[in-house]
Amino acid sequence: MKPKHKMIAAILTVALLATAGLAQSDDDDGTPWFQSWFDKAKPGIDPVGSQRYVEECGSCHFPYQPGLLPAPSWEKIMGSLDDHFGENAELDEGDRKTIQNYLLNNAAGRVNYGLSNKLMAAQRERPLPLRITEMRYFAYEHSEIPKELVQENPKVRSFSNCDSCHQRAKRGLYDEHDVRIPGFGRWDD
Ligand code: HEC
Ligand code: HEC
């Protein structure tokens, strides 16, 4: 190393140690070390970033964001497209691989978004379902909505139709203040 470079390296090291020291002092108030991962989480969920995915997986229903399900669930779904909830949703092998990679790389547990983290935290050690609507956090959040507004509502029919009620679902925003139930109006009124 040239002396000048040595100098820069030394300054950088001191700067690093200082930052580490600051981070360390945060922990002194009892905040667990992993808290910083949650503090850095982006709100909501990452919107869908693959046009191929929207075309192939958004033709029968809302194109669910990958961060709504953990990787093992997506893997099972992508491995059984010939019997997909009673329908045939098979793809050619190239598309299947591309989409599966996209889903697995952006799955809950692999990205740091607030909603993905909440879904995973609520699931804990329980088995991972195939459906988002069977994730524990989902069930908990929707448990007080009467079936007159959903299953018996011809404009909704199923909880799987996220965008029937969540007006900004496509942008990955599921805030309860953006909910409008067709035929009934705003949820928070
Ligand atoms: C031929 C139509 C069709 C295509 C294409 C299709 N699906 Fe589906 N999908 C369905 C049906 C039907 C359901 C069950 C919906 C219900 O119960 O209301 C479903 C449900 C789902 C669910 C569960 C939603 C819940 O209830 O939580 C996921 C996840 C899903 N599909 C992912 C995909 C992916 C990924 C693709 C692309 C590879 C895809 N789907 C393509 C018909 C389709
Ligand atoms: C029938 C309308 C309806 C459908 C369909 C629906 N939701 Fe909801 N959702 C609601 C309502 C109403 C609330 C607020 C519940 C409450 O506050 O008690 C909610 C709450 C939520 C929350 C918590 C929001 C927060 O601010 O904490 C999330 C996340 C969510 N929904 C995601 C989804 C996803 C993903 C889907 C599709 C798989 C979906 N929802 C389908 C009506 C719906």
Give an account of the 3D structure.
With 189 residues, this protein is an all-alpha fold. It has 2 domains: 40-130, no CATH class; 142-189, no CATH class. It contains 8 helices and 2 strands, in the order ααααααααββ. The protein has helices at residues 3-27, 35-39, 51-57, 71-78, 93-105, 114-123, 136-141, 162-165, and strands spanning 180-181, 185-186. It has a two-stranded antiparallel ribbon. A hairpin with a 3-residue loop joins strand 1 and strand 2. The chain is globular, with a radius of gyration of 22 Å. This is Diheme cytochrome c. Keywords: Signal. Residues 1-25 form the signal peptide.
Throw out a few tags for this protein.
mainly alpha, 2 strands, 2% strand, binds heme C, Diheme cytochrome c
Query: Helix tally?
Result: 8
The ordered H/E elements are: HHHHHHHHEE
- Overall pLDDT level: 87
Which ranges are low-confidence, i.e. pLDDT below 50, for 5 or more consecutive residues? 16-27
User: Helical proportion?
Assistant: 40-55%
Identify the overall geometry. Answer: globular
Query: How many domains, in number, for the residues?
Result: 2
